[in-house]
Amino acid sequence: MWRRWPRPQEEATLTVDALILAGGRIPADFARAVGTDKKGLIEIEGRHAVEYVVQALKEAKGIGRIALVGPQEYADTLAGKLDAYAREGKSIGANLRAGMEALGLGDEAMLVVTCDAVCLAGRAIDEFLGMCPPGLDMVCPVITTASAFRAFPERKWVPIPLRGQSVVCTNMFVIRPRVILKNEALATVVGDARKNLLAGARVWGWGFVLKLFLRRLTMESIAEHVKKVAGVTGTGVVFPDPDIAMDLDDAADMPIVKGWFARRAAAGGATGDPVTT
């Protein structure tokens, strides 16, 4: 089973710098529908998607500096709002390295978040940081598949089948630079595996993937396998708020996200306030 921590009552005990990943381009049909080929520059309620992410990071008490890796248009859009910027590379691993170097990190952990996590809130970031066990190379928050469908029933989720339950990956994780420095290709596989369970088969092995689909794996067995194969220590934490998993994968997600913003506005909430569904 994935480890579940009680919801912390205090602010985040871990303080880290944050990196926004904004590399890559969206498919042509999605780009035509939203008027841009860059996810973070999609406009929602009069603001770019990435601006909601930056706002959430700035509201989080556990976040220090903020960097972004992506095309120059992001640096122009966010002028004065970033502490560091780097141009995108050819892979997620290269972008993680570029962001780490832009922040000048040694072996301090950093929070990585995608540029289209428009429902992310500062309070959720702090809550996740408060859940992170010390000393690990990587910590990933997940939500239960049941909570994902309750909050966003129209969404096409990609569940990860585990023994006893299934979970969904989210739009952020904490990682230590040594993971990136040790193996940039591994960092890319870890990033890709968020949305594609087969992406890591060449690294983790087909036997591991088969056990996953047969629901024979637990958090502990996954962590042990990753440590054995890649020398990386890590874990997943079950997060209570499904909003952290919602993003903009395709045009079908646009009305879902707009509906979330409408519900929040009707409830009189500010950016980052939870929405009751």
Quick recap:
The chain is α/β, with parallel strands linked by helices.
What does this structure look like?
- This protein has helices spanning 28-34, 49-59, 72-77, 92-103, 122-131, 145-151, 177-182, 184-192, 201-204, 206-213, 219-230, 253-266, and strands at 16-21, 43-44, 47-48, 63-69, 84-86, 110-114, 138-144, 160-162, 165-169, 172-175, 234-238.
- It has 277 residues and is an alpha/beta fold.
- The protein has one domain: Alpha-Beta Complex (Spore Coat Polysaccharide Biosynthesis Protein SpsA, Chain A).
- α4 crosses α8.
- Residues 1-10 and 272-277 have low confidence and may be disordered.
- What gap, in angstroms, lies between the N and C termini? 27 Å
Cα Rg: 18 Å
- Proper CATH architecture: Alpha-Beta Complex
Task: Please bin the fraction of helical residues.
Answer: 25-40%
Write the layout of secondary structure elements.
Elements: E1 16-21, H1 28-34, E2 43-44, E3 47-48, H2 49-59, E4 63-69, H3 72-77, E5 84-86, H4 92-103, E6 110-114, H5 122-131, E7 138-144, H6 145-151, E8 160-162, E9 165-169, E10 172-175, H7 177-182, H8 184-192, H9 201-204, H10 206-213, H11 219-230, E11 234-238, H12 253-266
Parallel strand pairs: 1-4, 1-6, 4-5, 7-11
Antiparallel strand pairs: 2-3, 6-10, 7-9, 7-10, 8-9
